[in-house]
Amino acid sequence: MIKWKIFKQGVFEELPLQLGVFPFGIIYGVMAIETGLSPLQAFLMSSIIFGGASQIVFLQLLSSGSTMGIIVTSVGAINSRHFLYSLSMLEFLKSLSLKWRILLGYLLTDEAYAVSIRKFMNEPNKQFIHFHLLGSGITLFLSWQLSTLTGIFLGGDLPEFLDLQFIIPLTFIAIVIPMIKSISTLFVVISSGFAALICKNLDINFWIILAACVGIISGVLTSKMDKKL
Amino acid sequence: MIWTTIFLCGLVTFLIRFVPLSGVLTKEIPPFLKNTFKYIPLAVLTPIIVNDLSIIQNNNLYLMDNYKLYAAIVAIVVAIVSNNILVTIFVGMASFLIMSNFSNI
Fold first, then answer.
1. Which of B26, B42, B83 best tests the A interface by mutation, with the highest count of A CBs <10 A?
2. Among A157, A123, A59, A191, which residue's Cα sits nearest to residue B43?
3. Could you count the other beta carbons within 10 Å of the beta carbon of residue A80?
4. How many helices (H) and strands (E) does chain A have?
5. Nearest CA in chain A to B33
6. What is the mean pLDDT of residues A143-167?
7. Residue A175 included in any domain
8. Is residue A127 part of a domain?
9. What is the pLDDT of residues B54-91, one digit of tens each?
10. Is residue A108 in a domain?
C-alpha cells in the first residue's frame, strides 16, 4: 500500500498549514456575508474559485461596484502565480492520465504546492508521488470548505462596531509585506500604490488594472539592479 | 450576475492551474515573461490596500484622524516583525478600534 502511505504523508504534511488557512477561511466566510452574498454563493465560491486571497479581492471589488470584467481580470491576476507552479510540476506529472491532471490542477494551490513540490524533488522513486499532492490538496480543500462554512454561520452575528471591511486591507498587508524581498519588489509596491492613488483620483474605473501594470513595469525595469533586502 | 462572475473567475483560475499540466504548451515560456509573474500579486494587492485606506477623499489628502491609515502603518510594522497573518490582522484591528473609539478622551 505504498500509494496510501504517500497519500497519508501528503495529508499529514499539509495539516500544520491549516493553522493559517482555517482562520483565513473564516474571515472570508464572514466577509462574504457582510458583502451581501447569499450563503450559497459564499459557500460555493470556495469550491468554484478555491483561492483565498483572490476570493477576498472578489468581495472587495464587488462591494466597491466594479464591473464583471475587472473582477475576473483581477482574480485571474492574483492567481496567475499558480501558472508557474503548474509549469514546474509538469515534469513530475506528465505521464498521468488526463483525469488525474485535471484533478491535480484543480487542487493546485499555494499551500499544497509548497508541501508537495518538496516531496516531488526529494523522493527518488517518482512512481506514485502524485498521491502526495492528492493528499495535501484534498486536506486543504476540506479545510477551506469547512472554515468557509464556519465563517458563513458567524457572518451575520458579529457586533457592528468591529468595522469588518477593514480586515481586507489588513489581510493584504499581512500577505504583501513578506513578499517584499528585493529592491524590485519594493519598487512594485511603491509604484503601484502611488499609481492607485492617482488613478483612483482621476476616476478611472479600471484603476486597479492600470495601477497593477505600472507596478509590474517598474518591477521589471528595476529587476536588473536587484539585491536582497 | 454574481453567479456568472463567480463561474468565470472559477474557470479562469482552473485554466491557470491546469493549462501547463495539460501539456498543450509546447514552447518554453521566455524567462523575461516568467520574471513578470512574481510581481503580479504584489501589483494587484497593493492598490487595493491603498484604496481601502481612503488616503484621498474628495480630491483632498485625508491624513488627519485617518485611523485606518494609522492602524495600517501599525500593521505594516507588525507584519515585518511577526511575519504572521493573524497577529498582523489582530493588532491592526485592535489599534484601529482603540484609536477610533477613544480619540475624544
1. B42
2. A191
3. 19
4. 12, 0
5. A220
6. 84
7. no
8. yes
9. 888 777 888 888 999 999 999 999 999 998 888 998 99
10. yes
